[in-house]
Design goal:
mainly alpha, 30s Ribosomal Protein S14, Chain N, 2 domains, 3 helices, 2 strands, elongated, chloroplast, plastid, structural constituent of ribosome
């Protein structure tokens, strides 16, 4: 089960924008915290909003490393729940044992 190629490509583009604008957004947010007046904070907020929408880190979605599946991902492995299960059933993962109560 794999995700559509266009969706994966779009998410990679968002990751690229996020990496490109990371330092800019971080410095603007630091300046906003140091601003003493409300008008100065408002100007910095306008600058922050002028950056591309897809450069915000909240627009990113964690996807499976192998299949590109967006849901049910293990952060530690970077894989969706299907991949470790399939590899365990194929005896490619050492350790897990399939249980049966029959």
């Amino acid at each position: 089960m794999t995700a559509k190629k266009g969706v994966i490509r779009r998410d990679k583009g968002k990751q690229g924008l996020g990496n490109k604008y990371h330092s800019i957004r971080r410095s603007l947010k630091a300046r906003m915290g140091e601003a003493s007046s409300l008008d100065g904070r408002w100007e910095i907020h306008k600058e922050l909003q002028s950056s591309p929408r897809n450069s915000a880190p909240t627009r990113l979605h964690r996807r499976c490393f192998l299949t590109g599946r967006p849901g049910a991902n293990y952060r530690y492995f970077g894989l969706s729940r299907h991949v470790p299960r399939e590899t365990a059933h194929a005896c490619l993962l050492p350790g897990p044992v399939k249980s049966s109560w029959q």
